[in-house]
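Notebook B, p. 112. Complex prediction, attempt 2.
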Amino acid sequence: MEQHINIKLTQTVLSLEACSAFVSADNVGGIVNFVGTVRNQTKGKKVLKLDFEAYEPMAVSEMAKIAQQAIEKYEVHKMAIHHRIGMLEVGEIPVIIAASSAHRKAAFEACQYAIDTLKETVPIWKREVFEDGEVWVSATP
Amino acid sequence: MEQHINIKLTQTVLSLEACSAFVSADNVGGIVNFVGTVRNQTKGKKVLKLDFEAYEPMAVSEMAKIAQQAIEKYEVHKMAIHHRIGMLEVGEIPVIIAASSAHRKAAFEACQYAIDTLKETVPIWKREVFEDGEVWVSATP
Amino acid sequence: MKVKLLSFGITKEMVGSFEKNLELPSGTTVEGFLEILKSEYPALKKLTSLRIAVNEEYAEGNHEIMERDEIVLVPPVSGG
Amino acid sequence: MKVKLLSFGITKEMVGSFEKNLELPSGTTVEGFLEILKSEYPALKKLTSLRIAVNEEYAEGNHEIMERDEIVLVPPVSGG
C-alpha cells in the first residue's frame, strides 16, 4: 500500500528536497513546504543556539496523528513532517513540513494546521541558549 | 545593498533549494515555499504536457512587482519567485515561490498572495496538451 | 504613426502572427485601438478577457498610444 | 504498584532526575498523581501548563494509572 504520510525525528540535517519529493505525485498541482529556522533573537535578546529534546516515541506518534488529521481535514494527498533534535545553530532547520494537493489552497491550509498543531501537542522541548544563560521556552509565565 | 527579492524566468529546471536558500537569513524564523507541479489531469481529462510561453521582459517586471508588494504588505524579509517556460511533463515544476519572515504567519500569507496574484497579472500563458488536441488555458469561456 | 503589435497565447492564432507592424491614426487610445482590432479580427471577441500592455506595462482604456510604442495583446494569463 | 516516571524539559530539573521508579497506591488517577507530585516538588506549580502522558498517549485527569505504566511529565511543548 502506498504511504501517504512520512514522519522523521532525527539528530541529523533535514532535507527540503526529500520532504517535497515525498509528497510530489502526478495527481497533485501544488506543494506547500514550511521550513522552520533558528532565529538569531527572541524578544530582542540575542540567541546563540537552540537545544531540542523529545520524548521520541510519542513525538513520532503525535506527528503521525497530525499528518493523518491534516489529510482527513483538508483535501490533501500526502504529508511529510520531519523534526530535528539536538543542538542547532542560528540558521539551521529544526522542522520541515510538506503538504501536496490537487488545488493549492488545501496544501496551504494543511501545512499551517500541521505546524500550528505540532507546536501545541508534540512532546518536543527547546532551550534557548543566550550569552548569559539558558531558558526552557514557554515553560514558566 | 542586500537584495530582498530574487526573480527568475528560465527554460531550465527550477531549484527549490536555491529559492529557499535565497530567502533564508539569521533573523527569520520561518520559510514558506510554494511549488507548482504539472498535474496529470484537468476537469477529469488526461493531460500529457503543459507548454508555457511568456512575454518575458514584462513577466519579469510583474513578478518583481508582486515580490515587492508582498514584502510591503506583510512583514516579510525576502521573496523569491522563479518561473519556468517551455514544454513541461507531468510532475515537473513550472513555478516556485519562497517567502521568509520572523513569524510564520506572514510568510504563509505572502506566499499565497504571490501565487494568487501571479496567476492574475503575470503575462505567462499555458497550453494544455491532451491526447486529442491542445487548449490555451482559460482563454475562452 | 507606426507601432509594433505582439500577440501571445491564443491571440497569436487569432490575429495570424506573433509580430505585426501597424499604422495608427495619431491620438489613438488603447480603447480605440481595441475597437479597430476587434473589428478586423472578430475572433478576439470570444476571449474571456483581453488586456493591453504598452511598453511592458498594463495600460488603461484612455491611455494614449504613441509613435513606436510596443503594444502587446494579453489574453487571460495562466502562469503558475 | 510500581510505575516509571520520565521527566522532560524543565521538569527534569524540577523533579531532580530524568527517570524515577515510584510506588503509587493502586487506583491512583492522573489527577491524584499530579497532586502527590506537586506537593513533593512544589516547583512544578510554577509551570504554565503540565500535562501527563501515560504509555505514549496524553491522559485525562480521571484516567487510572496501572502497574508498570510509563508516566511522562509534559511541560509546555515548544517544538518547531
